[in-house]
Amino acid sequence: MAINPQTGQRIGYDEIMRRLSAISKIRPNKDDIDEHIARLKSESDRGVMILAATMLEDALLTAVGRLLPNASNKVRKELFSNDGPLSTFSKKIIFAEAAGLVSPIISKQMNIIRRIRNTAAHAHAAVDFSLDEVKFAIATMLSDREQSDDFESWPKHKVRNFYLQICGYLADHLIGGAGGLEAAAASPDAIHGLFR
pTM of the prediction? Predict the structure, then answer.
């Protein structure tokens, strides 16, 4: 049991777990993206890799959820919870591409972000934006012209900023900001100018 400092009442384990779960289920709206990105700037590299990708996954969940306007809460829970068919980031990406919600290029970029997040979350070794494997993964999101812009020599902060920007851009488009996802799908290469 814990004591609620505001009311002085005892709060049981189940209530604490319910409240924590409710906080984690709050989905971003288009006004939240810039604020979230600004907060991430003070995070460690590993924190940025994980939290920016999680923001993107939450935005994807919001976008996929819009494709299911008549689904009951029970059906949504079965789709997105635990071992449901849309329970993981990778499954949501596959579904979004199959449904035409994202282009193959955007799907590929989200998978790269997902893989970087998973590496940051599970690696016991140090992982940051100066790591060659992270830089090379991010470089695959750039056009050939931009890759020739000496990407390998980018300082860590520039790689980090690009990662934050691409996660924010994609999340914003998925939840309907900046012209909506249609704008991103119509011009998926627009993100390649973000690091300038």
Answer: 0.78
